Amino acid sequence: MIGRDLLGTEDLDRADIERILETAEHMREIGRRTIKKVPTLRGRTIVNLFFESSTRTKSSFEIAGKRLSADVINFAAASSSLKKAESILDTARNLEAMDLDAVVVRHAVAGVPKQIADVLSAPVINAGDGAHEHPTQALLDLLTVRREKGRIDGLTIAIIGDILHSRVARSNIYAFRKMGAEVRVAGPPQMLPAAIETLGVKAFTSLREAIDGVDVVMALRIQNERLSGTYLPSVREYSATYGIDREKLKFAKDDAIVMHPGPVNRGVELSHDLTDHRPGVILDQVRNGVAIRMAVLYLLSGRRQEGDPRLDLESGEEK
Amino acid sequence: MSEQRIWIRGGRILDPAAERDEPGDVLIEGGVIVAVGAKLDASDAQVIDANGAWIAPGFVDLHAHLREPGQEYKEDIASGGRSAVAGGFAAVACMANTHPVNDDPAMTDFIIDRAKQDSPARVYPIAAATRGLEGSEMTEMSALVEAGAVAFSDDGKTIMDGGVMRRILEYSKTVGSPVITHGEDRHLVGEGVVNEGPVSTKLGLPGNPAVAEDVLVTRDLMLAEMTGAHLHVAHVSTKGAVAAIRRSRERGAHVTAEVTPHHLTLTDEALLGYDTNAKVAPPLRSKADVLACREGLADGTIDAIATDHAPHAVHEKDLEFTEAPPGLIGFETAFPVVLDLVRGGELSPLELMRRLSTNPARIIGRPGGSLAIGAAADVAILDPEMNWIYDPAKGYSKSRNSPWAGQTLKGRAIATIVAGRLVYDVDRGVLYP
C-alpha cells in the first residue's frame, strides 16, 4: 500500500507503482479535455515548498493540483535555513499549524523531505532532494516507457551520465527494477557512486558496452558547474565520450527510445540530431509528468480524511 | 579537599593498575584511598552499598568539548562537568576549539579556575597546537604546559600542512606532551558528510571516504616515527587507520590512540533515516571498520576509549543534514554503550576499565586510573546490569544531541567519587558543587 508520504520509489512496491500508473492514465485523459479541471480536490490546500529553484517541476505540480481543483500555494522558501535563521523543522512546524492537505518539497540537500515528513501530519511529496530521490520523475519515466513499449517487465534500461549527483538515477533504478526491468548505469568513474552495484544495477564506464542491446537510453542532465574542473576536464571531452548521438545509438536496439529528464544541454548529453529526431518521447515525459503528479496528489491528499474515501474523478462526489 | 570518609562496601573491585579483579571494599579518607580489601570495617564512615556493582577507577576522558568560553548555550564547564560525573568520569580533557580558542596561557588558566569553582569532575585543558586553530603558527607550548595544558591539538581541524605538523611534533618533545591529531585529509573529505559507501549512495549525501583518514593518520604516524615525538590519534574510525597504527607501534613509534563509543558500536546505517544526531566527524563507518576498531581496542593497538562529547543545541541539529554540525553528547551513555564489548566477549571488565581510566590517565601523565592505597580517590561505581531509558532532557548536559535518546540502555554509573568526595549518586543526582 502507498504510505502517507511519497518520499522515494525505494519505499514503493510493485502494486503501488501499478496503481499510480493506472491512476495517471485516467489523469492524462483529463488533460486532453477542453475543460481540464475536475472538482476532486476542491477545498484542499496543497503547498509547493521549493527551497531550490525549479521551473518545470514546480509548474508541473501546480498545474496538477489546479486541474484537481485544489488550492495550490507556492511557498517562497530561502534556499538555506541558515540564511534566514529558521531551521527547516521550524518551517515545517509553522506549516503544520496551517492545516494543509499536502506539501510538495524540493530541496538541494538529501533528506529534507523526510525530516519535514517526520514533523508534519499532512502527506509530504518529495519533488527532488539533493542526490537522493525524485520519485515523481521516475514514475513519469515509467509511464512514458510503458506507453512507448507496452510493458516494462523484461526491458533493459541504460542510465547515462553523472550518476553520483543524480536523484533521477536513484529513483529510476528502484522504480524500473521493481517493475521487472534490468537497469544499467554508465558514466565516468568519478561520477559513479561508491558501491552503486548494491542498488542492483550493472555499472559501466564504457558507454558502448552500457547501451549494447538496450531498449531505453536515458541521458541525465549534467550540471554546468561539474563540466570543468575537478569532475570533468571539459564539455567537449564529456560529450565525445558520454554524449549520445546516432552513431553510438546504433549499439542499442533498433527500436530503442531516448529519454532525458530535461532540460537538455543540447550537444552535450544528446547530439542535436537526436534531440530533434524523436522529440515526442522527451516531450511526452513532460506531459506524463502532469498526469503522474495529479495521480500522486489524488492518491495521497485525497485520502487525508478518515476512511480512505474513494473520490470520483468525474464529479468529485465522494462515493 | 574533602574530609569525607567513605566506605564502598561489597563490590567487585576492578583495578587495572594492580591487575586486580576480586570482590571487596574500598575505604576513602582525606581525598585518598586508604584501604582496599575484603571485609573492611569502618562503621563510622559514609557507606555506599556496591553490592552487585563494579568499583573501578573514575573514568578519564581524553576528548571532550565543554564549549566554555564562547558557546555556553551548548554547554559550559559546570554542566559538562556534571554530565561527566553522571557517566562515571572523574576527569575530562577538553578540546581547544572554544571562542576564543585556548591557544594562550591566560585561557588555559581561565578554564582551570572555572573548573575548580564549577565542575565536579577534574578538567584538563588541551591547548591548541596552532594559534587560532589556523594550522600555521605554533602555540607557546612551554607556557601552556606551565599553565596546566595536558596536550596539544587542533581537533576538528586537521593541520593540513605537513611541514607545520612536523615542527609541532619536534617542538612538543621539549615539553613531553602528546600532540593529538584529528586525522582527516580535508581535501579528500571534500563536502563529505557520511561515510562513502553503500549508505552514502543510498542517502544521496556526499561521501567522506575512509581513505581521507587512512592517508592523514599515516602521514602523522610517519612524522611521529621520524621525530620521535608522542603522537596521539584521536577518534580512530577506519580499518586502515587501525592497521597503520598497529604497524607504527610495532616499529616502536611513540604512538597512542583513542576510539569513541559510537565508532565502536554504530555503523553508517544509523544514518539511514537522516538522523543528524548521528552525524559525527569522522563519520560513522562500515561494519568492517567497526570490527577493526573493536579488534584494535582489544589487542592494545588503541589504548583508550574517549567520548568526543560534542554538545550542539537542538536548533543547530534541526538543520539540513549537510548544515547540521557534527558531534554527539557522550558522557552519560559511554559506559552502557561500551559494555557491549564485554557482552561480546572482546574485553574483560578489567580490560574495559583499563581503557576508560588507567590508559587515558597515563597518556596525558595525570593521576587516576588506579585504586592503589594512597592514590587520589577518583572512583566510579558501576552497575553493569541496570536497565534504564536514556532521556537527554533528564541528563546534565545542556544539549540533547544523542543517537541513543529514548533507547533502553543496560549498565549505568551509580556513584562517582572525585578526590575523595562523593559528587554523584544515581538516586540523588549530582551532589557537588
Overview of this protein structure:
The complex is a heterodimer of chains A (319) and B (433). Chain A is of the alpha/beta class and 319 residues long. Chain A has 2 domains: 9-134 and 285-301, 3-Layer(aba) Sandwich (Rossmann fold); 136-279, Aspartate/ornithine carbamoyltransferase (Rossmann fold, 3-Layer(aba) Sandwich). In chain A, 38% of the residues lie in helices and 14% in strands. Chain A is built from 12 helices and 9 strands. Chain A has helices at residues 14-31, 56-67, 81-84, 88-96, 112-117, 135-149, 167-178, 207-211, 235-242, 246-249, 272-277, 279-301; strands at residues 45-50, 71-76, 102-107, 124-129, 156-160, 182-186, 202-204, 216-219, 257-259. In chain A, helix 2 packs across helix 12 (279-301). Chain B has 14 helices and 19 strands. Chain B has helices at 77-86, 105-118, 141-147, 162-172, 186-189, 198-203, 210-227, 239-250, 261-265, 287-299, 314-317, 331-338, 340-343, 349-364, and strands spanning 5-15, 20-29, 32-37, 46-49, 54-57, 59-64, 89-94, 122-127, 151-153, 179-181, 194-195, 207-208, 231-233, 255-259, 304-305, 379-389, 408-418, 421-425, 429-430. In chain B, helix 1 crosses helix 2 and helix 2 runs parallel beside helix 3 (141-147). At the A-B interface, helix 4 and helix 5 of A face helix 6 of B.
Largest sheet of chain A, in brief, is: 5 strands, parallel
The total strand number of chain B stands at 19
Radius of gyration of chain A equals: 20 Å
Please name the two chains that share the biggest interface, counting residues whose Cβ lies under 8 Å from a Cβ on the partner chain. A-B, 28 and 21 residues
Q: Structural class of the secondary elements of chain A?
A: alpha/beta
Give the end-to-end Cα distance of chain A, rounded to a whole number of Å. 21 Å
CATH top level of the largest domain in chain B is: Alpha Beta
Our measurement of the CA-to-CA distance between the termini of chain B, rounded to an integer number of angstroms, reads 13 Å
CATH topology (fold) name of the largest domain in chain B = TIM Barrel
Poorly predicted ranges of chain B (pLDDT <50, ≥5 residues)?
Answer: none
* Tertiary shape of chain A: globular
| Percent range of helical residues of chain B | 25-40%
Helix content of chain A: 25-40%
Count of the domains of chain A: 2
Named CATH topology of the largest domain in chain A: Rossmann fold
CATH 4th-level superfamily of the largest domain in chain A: Aspartate/ornithine carbamoyltransferase
